[in-house]
Amino acid sequence: MPATQSVSCWIRRSIPLLVGGMLLAACSSTPPKPAASIGTAGTRNVPADIASIPLTTQTGATTTIGSLVGKTVFAVPFLTLCPDVCPFTTGNLLSVQASVDAAKQRSNVVLLEWSVDPERDTQERLAAYAKMVGATWTMVRTSPANTTKLEAFFGATATRQSVDDPAPIDWMTHQPITYDVSHSDGFNVINTKGVEKFISGAPPAFHGTLNPTLNSYLSADGKDTLKNPPKNGWTPSDALEAISYVSGTQISLSAPK
């Protein structure tokens, strides 16, 4: 589900997967730039109206992208009631966060999972989801209007759609869900100066054992994807390559404890 965006000196989120090697800005850095199959390097400042959007975390705290200047930010869209793709994003982030911690870079690198389902993803639901999956990174929500602004900036799309019968059962309320949200995949990486330096439209490619609750919540498509991860999807290693490239600090893959 690639996102659509038209921005000067940047390209549509899905294009990196289609036009290998195309760059918008020459950039020399160590660690090296990730492969074009993962995404595209570029340079785009985070504008003030995006940097100042109030984001509520799973703990009830308020943060903003602007307040994270000085840290490398790995931003990825998700929703807690996604039955097919987001569980794999979460599964990958467990490995990414473990690797960041093992490299002693937690104070320098922030994983930011931002919800594209603000009506259902309350702070309480984010907290329950984080506890369920063992997430120690930052999950955030904001108002519907501000969510739309984030989607426009990050090049993400999110559309409410009906669910197949029988509807999946909400893991938190144990009631059938009434709608799903079809959304784009990928991630964005922002450097310590508040400049977006890398963008990907790839879906997550998860390899391993999924959280039992998320596994039981998967749709038929999700179960098929678990058995057959997308060949062009991003893995924890790919995410770490992008983070290392933008931060300038090599972070190698380390297994979650």
Q: Which key phrases capture this entry?
A:
257 residues; Glutaredoxin; two-stranded antiparallel ribbon; 7 helices; disordered N terminus
Morphology call: globular
Strand content: 15-25%
SSE class: alpha+beta
Please give the radius of gyration in angstroms.
17 Å
Q: Low-confidence parts, pLDDT < 50 over ≥5 residues? A: 1-12, 14-29
Overall tally of structural domains: 1
Strand order of the largest sheet: 1-10-9-4-5-6-2-3
CATH homology group = Glutaredoxin
CATH topology type? Glutaredoxin
Quickly name the level 1 CATH class.
Alpha Beta
Total beta-strand segments: 10
Number of helices: 7
The share of residues in helices is 25-40%
What is the first-to-last residue Cα distance? 32 Å
Average pLDDT taken over every residue: 89
Q: What is the succession of H and E elements?
A: EHEEEHEHEHEEEEHHH
CATH A-level architecture: 3-Layer(aba) Sandwich
The description of the largest β-sheet is: 8 strands, mixed
TL;DR of this structure?
This protein is of the alpha+beta class and 257 residues long. Helix content is 27%, strand content 18%.
What's the layout of helices and strands?
Elements: E1 40-45, H1 48-51, E2 55-57, E3 62-63, E4 72-78, H2 86-102, E5 109-115, H3 123-133, E6 138-141, H4 144-154, E7 158-161, E8 180-183, E9 187-190, E10 195-200, H5 212-217, H6 220-227, H7 236-247
Parallel strand pairs: 4-5, 5-6
Antiparallel strand pairs: 1-10, 2-3, 2-6, 4-9, 7-8, 9-10
Helix pairs in contact: 2-7
